[in-house]
Amino acid sequence: MDLVPVILSGGVGSRLWPVSREMHPKPFIQLPDGQNLIQKTFLRACRLPGVSEILTVTNRELFFKTQDEYKAIEGADCAQSFILEPFGRNTAAAIAIGALKLAESHGPEAQMLVLAADHLIQAEDAFADAVAKASQLAADGWLVTFGILPHYPETGFGYIQTRSDTALGHGLKVERFVEKPDLATAEGYLAAGGYYWNSGMFCFRVGTLLEQLGQHAPEVLEAAAAAIERSDISTGKRHRSLNLDPAHFAKVPDISIDYALMERSDRVATVPCDIGWSDIGSWIAMSELTAPDNDGNRLEGEVLTHASTNNFVHSCERLTALVGVQDLVVVDTPDAVLVAHKDHTQDVRHIVKQLKSHGHSAHLLHRTVNRPWGSYTTLEEGDRFKIKRIVVKPKASLSLQMHHHRSEHWIVVSGMARVVNDDRELMLNSNESTFISAGHRHRLENPGVIDLVLIEVQSGDYLGEDDIVRFEDVYGRATS
Amino acid sequence: MDLVPVILSGGVGSRLWPVSREMHPKPFIQLPDGQNLIQKTFLRACRLPGVSEILTVTNRELFFKTQDEYKAIEGADCAQSFILEPFGRNTAAAIAIGALKLAESHGPEAQMLVLAADHLIQAEDAFADAVAKASQLAADGWLVTFGILPHYPETGFGYIQTRSDTALGHGLKVERFVEKPDLATAEGYLAAGGYYWNSGMFCFRVGTLLEQLGQHAPEVLEAAAAAIERSDISTGKRHRSLNLDPAHFAKVPDISIDYALMERSDRVATVPCDIGWSDIGSWIAMSELTAPDNDGNRLEGEVLTHASTNNFVHSCERLTALVGVQDLVVVDTPDAVLVAHKDHTQDVRHIVKQLKSHGHSAHLLHRTVNRPWGSYTTLEEGDRFKIKRIVVKPKASLSLQMHHHRSEHWIVVSGMARVVNDDRELMLNSNESTFISAGHRHRLENPGVIDLVLIEVQSGDYLGEDDIVRFEDVYGRATS
Lengths: 480, 480
Hints:
The structure is a homodimer. Helix content of chain A is 23%, strand content 36%.
């Protein structure tokens, strides 16, 4: 029997702004130990006994970035497959499409272990143990959830109520799912016992899941099958991917798997577990990953304090100074800084809403933007000029392109560049430069084995990213 | 009788860090209306009846910057003279040297009006009125202080106690100077009446001042005279300046004019006045120059708030977001951000002390550094490269120079550059570039009438500012 972890990578995590952005969502936020949540999830899944392939469901804009993150992990050599969504469509769609694809490739006896890309699980052995139990229940035809033993009356999660009279050997039958409670209700749950946090992780036998979906949510299953049929499949050296067709994917109902299936089925069980789980749902949860100093301050980066206690500071590149303050969260990024009270970190998403409604790019992008070939960082913009640092990965190449309104100076600061500039092809070593006139076709490529770092100074009347004509693109963007 | 305002421009204003830095001290901080404190002081002094010349005492490193600030003021065409200090040496030294120079140029009947460069005076007519009264008292041989009518029991200032039985027509005789009081004492002063804040502004007849200094502080007067004798005088088209010799200036006792003279003399009077005076001694004082919104937030720059009240935010270039916070001061600059409680803004100087003791440059410089010819801003530094934006003022020129360890790419983004590059001289228009090899002599000059803006990309093994050999320099720095 094959067990295939299915990593759902959706959601921005807007409560972790300004580090999270739409194009740099929560699974990609680096933790103090240097790894990010999606890397940790991939590695944890890959280490489970019997796992040889991992299916990731993610937004297509994050495909290359996700592959890069997986590639950067040491000691995780699972095969990778991807389902690429043109936009988010809730969990029922992702899970149904995943199940249909796994039925095709692995048969109905295969099991899928649904994991969120942005949760932290610190007790890995206990997690593996819980998965083994869930797998046995799934083999018996149960739809299995993972019920997290609650240590305090959290009001931000839904709860799973179990029936203690129906132990199933490795778990408990689920009585019902309950919505996020108020504090008194949550305290009642803890006092009563038999209630667990709904972690959003699942284990299903593929055949059971499809049968149950057909019974309780046939409209999801049918639309999912139709979307797959109209979608493109591509196979690379290291991965297979299904690129979902937007028009057909949009027809899959926008509903969670909890509403669509789990709350309707009577075949639902839970494996109670205590696995050091956190959804890193706010800056408070993030701050707990950094040890406090003698004043209770948890400080990342270059920070000076005076008469300040119990604060959390995350400072990337600049100096942060605290004077006479308590219980604050200060998060500094190159283009935005957040100052929040610890009791209000859930409200950070209101800032993101304001940014969206103002059309401000700070909810969407960081100053550094990732591309399939590497990244660029805008260092400065002014009247008629823009300066970028461009990093091109070894063997990677930008498209053959042309700009109508801007010319570009390129100066190599490290690595080696192969450049097409109009009708010439040249090699630039570090400290060499070239000038690309407006209207000239050009291409930038890193033929070497270390990163190519290049400073680009653009000048012209119009410097928008949309002044680009792509002639050839190895990433399939020539027509976009 | 000549009245010569003497502007004392010393002190960093470290409580206004991170906007104030040693090389960008408090007089240069821009207020919300766009002018800075030294400009306001110069303009206010220049508008006084009978004033045709202003003497500024400042650190020699701030000479060019101060001239630039004066030049940028509309409608202030007083003659400028300067006394340039190699380091700060307290007020007695500055005032004694100023008096000796004025005695030489204007004779003993001339009056000096001593003003701080970093105070704000919002009632200009009342100020002019107080100066007229002080001038009459000074003509009668009094050493005149300006006593600010206290509106609340401030504990951060010294007080002047007057004798109400000795009205002098335009002022009051001073009974004694008292140190910064505690709150109860300050409240007692206000209740008793006859106490005024010591503003640190003075009006003296030059002859009287020298005679009184000779009597009460002869060691100051003698050392001041000796320092002048050993110093260089230079005369430009728009100014005269006395560049004090460091060794002899160091021999002038480091003492305030209050201790050296005012507290010892029995010829001291005060002109009580109510002139909208503030020493802008902290971020609280600065915040009061910005009107509050409906939530009591005083916001400068791009700021978003949620559930936050009574905060002050000064944000230069980036987005600042506040969530659920009260009574904070947040000051954002390109390389450092301060988060302080309003009750602790006096303690900001402790951060500056920490920076100094760590040898951190953030107490000294901004990311933008002023030079006689314009300014440069470090946009990015990395391994073996550094990127600067360089702004050269019209008709200004950098020195003819050479670097041993770095080469430089120059790209003009606006304006016109005249460049010496080894044995060539060339003109670069915007969007043109040149490459300066390590070891080549070069010079950059702006022959035009608008600012020249240039991006410099340096590369090499060593990129320190001290890798420079200057051959010719219009600012006299070739040997430094």
